[in-house]
Amino acid sequence: MSMTSQTFYRLVWQVNTMKLDHVAIWVVDIELMRTFYEKYFDARSNRKYENERKRFTSYFLTFPGGGRLELMHRSGTRTWVWSWALRPPSTP
Description:
Elements: H1 5-16, E1 19-26, H2 30-41, E2 44-45, E3 49-51, E4 56-62, E5 68-74, E6 82-87
Parallel strand pairs: 1-5
Antiparallel strand pairs: 1-6, 2-4, 3-4, 4-5
């Protein structure tokens, strides 16, 4: 069975296309921001992740239409930074 070049390129594109997994933001008041997204965007939160040694906490919020937001807080941090993460495409 031979494969046409068009089919080959379509398969390569599907395999190599990355998906945006989540966006992350640093927040000053993590509980206030979690409540805000739950109330106004109907987001659902995971259990709080805590790293006492690094004084770091975070929540992953999942939105009804898809997409995730990570809220991050570290004691003493007042810098507003955002980041994003990619995940590999699903395998067929």
